[in-house]
Design brief:
about 250 residues, alpha/beta, single chain, globular, two-stranded antiparallel sheet, six-stranded parallel β-sheet, about 15% strand
């Protein structure tokens, strides 16, 4: 089941339900899962392909308090934030096999080494790193296709993809089609927090919806523009929605 948030069909789900879904999923049926935050929702308003990608995933999870808040405004009381950080930690303690595909080989190796120590029961069977690509270079890249062949030999249940959005959403959309087994999950910058290279905010800051401010204070030069346009973009969507009656999306009941 999904809820329509500004044209994006977000799954009406929470962390516990997501974990149950993935623990019982038949990984012979390949696919991908997205975790858009508010900035991705805003960006998708000018990117029809990104809308298509988000709306045709196995799950499009509500990543962040703003999406949880919007869902609850529409009456979805059981819908809550699904953080890639906590989802990975939860599933590393399951019987599922994992593959980590991050932005830099050395950083991804360090992450995997750390996770194997922190979660000794985890089944991490491999890791890799995609090349630096522009958005229009992602589809049918020879290096990524070779990595998919290697992944197909290893047969992990979950391939965690940790690069920037929306590149990661494009990547999981295009290359999940080449999988013979497993599901690709786009979790963005979570690899940095799991490895300890960036400090994650305290849980109470997340609960009141100000994790974005914590990140902005940490990296103001890199993030100020992103958050500026996200906030104004969100305000515009809300104002537009107040003065425009939209028809329900045909797939909103899925």
């Amino acid at each position: 089941m999904r809820i329509n948030l500004f044209g994006i069909l977000v799954s009406k789900i929470n962390l516990k339900e997501t974990g149950l879904f993935l623990s019982k999923y038949n990984y012979e049926q390949t696919g991908y899962i997205c975790l858009p935050d508010l900035s991705v929702i805003v960006s998708a308003q000018k990117d029809k392909k990104l809308v298509h990608i988000l709306n045709n995933s196995l799950l499009t999870l509500p990543d962040g308090k703003p999406l949880e808040f919007l869902g609850k405004l529409k009456g979805e009381k059981g819908m809550s934030t699904v953080s890639g950080y906590w989802l990975i930690k939860q599933l590393l303690q399951s019987n599922l096999n994992h593959y980590f595909y991050g932005s830099q080989q050395e950083k991804t190796k360090s992450l995997v080494d750390k996770l194997r120590i922190e979660f000794p029961v985890s089944k991490i069977i491999g890791f890799g790193s995609p090349p630096l690509l522009n958005l229009d270079e992602i589809e049918n890249n020879a290096t990524v296709l070779n990595e998919i062949e290697r992944i197909n030999q290893l047969k992990p249940d979950i391939i965690w993809v940790g690069i920037s959005s929306p590149k990661q959403d494009y990547l999981v959309y295009h290359y999940s089609k080449h999988l013979q087994y497993g599901v690709m999950i786009a979790v963005g910058g979570v690899f940095d927090y799991l490895s300890g290279s960036k400090k994650i905010s305290p849980e109470w800051i997340k609960q009141i919806g100000f994790r974005w401010l914590y990140r902005l204070i940490q990296e103001p030069r890199r993030l100020w523009k992103k958050y500026f346009f996200t906030i104004w973009g969100m305000l515009w969507l809300i104002i537009r929605g107040l003065f425009k009656v939209t028809k329900p999306h045909p797939n909103s009941a899925k």
